[in-house]
Design a protein that fits this description.
The chain has a single domain, classed as Alpha-Beta Barrel (TIM Barrel), CATH 3.20.20. Helix content is 36%, strand content 13%. It has 12 helices and 8 strands. The protein has an 8-stranded parallel beta sheet. Helix 2 runs parallel beside helix 11 and helix 9 runs parallel beside helix 10. The radius of gyration is 18 Å and the shape is globular. Keywords: Hydrolase, Lyase. This is Amidohydrolase family protein. Pfam families: Amidohydro_2.
Length: 286
């Protein structure tokens, strides 16, 4: 079984020629998506360290997602994938409001090691794009160009449903099961229900990434079993992708892997390879 992690971050510290946004530099400690989320570790992670972490946990490949606090540059992620071309691909950040965005999008997949785009909508300056029509061209062009998208979109899954219906050829992957990053345990129920409702769209998939971050219980996080079973039953093994977000886990990387490979008894052994990597590999043509 080839195990592919659907989300890892690598990043470098702020430096003058590759600066971090001012608001990120002002934050202390590890970066977080929103207040109350489990923070990522404060120290940067490079490709060599991530590859070693993967080796120790039995993870063969991983999708690098550049972290939003470091800004919109994909250079460090692409350099990591170039260093380990058999192990990493990148779902890069993209600003649809930037000058020349549409022209840049046209050649997106021509970049070596670039597999798609990861959009984040967890802040007001981005979530408004889901309603005002300003990036309607982006969804249409990604559909036409065959660019798969990963979406961090907590609380706005109904907007994803509208996009999926309007663009049936566009592959949309929901990050972190659609759960708000500051929620734990039973508080996740509403977000899980909203995600399950999206399963009716065949072009929507779900990343079971960072799952341990949403439980206050220790491994194997039994209080999440019912939610994971509901998502698995709705999406099936070919549209549910395991992932770790390893740099903010409250458990070991190995436990995050074995949570799915050993602790969850509702995934049949014959279907487990799809959840652990094959489904994502096919979607990204990797």
């Amino acid at each position: 079984m080839i195990i592919i992690d659907s989300q890892v971050h690598v990043w470098e510290a702020h430096r003058p020629d590759r600066p971090w946004p001012a608001e990120s530099l002002a934050a202390a400690g590890g970066f977080v998506a929103v207040p109350g989320a489990r923070p990522h570790r404060a120290e940067p992670v490079d490709a060599a360290e991530m590859a070693a972490m993967m080796d120790a946990a039995g993870v063969h490949r991983a999708v690098i997602v550049p972290p939003s606090p470091a800004g919109d540059s994909n250079l460090f992620a692409l350099e990591a994938a170039q260093q380990y071309p058999d192990r990493f691909v990148v779902m890069g950040r993209f600003d649809p409001m930037a000058a020349g965005a549409r022209e840049r999008l046209a050649g997106w997949l021509e970049q070596p090691h670039m597999a798609g785009i990861r959009m984040t909508f967890h802040k007001p300056q981005w979530s408004g794009w889901l309603d005002d029509g300003s990036i309607d061209w982006f969804w249409a062009d990604c559909e036409r160009l065959g660019i798969p998208l990963m979406l961090l979109v907590p609380g706005r899954l109904e907007a994803v449903g509208r996009i999926a219906q309007r663009h049936p050829g566009l592959q949309l992957v929901i990050d972190h099961l659609g759960i708000h990053s500051n929620l734990r345990d039973a508080a996740c129920a509403g977000d899980i229900a909203a995600l399950v409702a999206l399963a009716r769209h065949p072009n929507v998939s779900a990343k079971a990434s960072a799952v341990p971050c949403y439980s206050n219980e220790p491994y194997p996080f039994r209080n999440l079993d019912g939610y994971l079973r509901a998502v698995y039953d709705a999406f099936g093994p070919r549209r549910l992708f395991w992932g770790s977000d390893v740099t903010r886990l409250p458990c070991s990387y190995t436990e995050a892997v074995e949570h799915f490979t050993r602790a969850l008894d509702f995934i049949p052994p014959a279907e487990l390879p799809w959840v652990m990597g094959r489904g994502l590999s096919e979607l990204l043509r990797w």
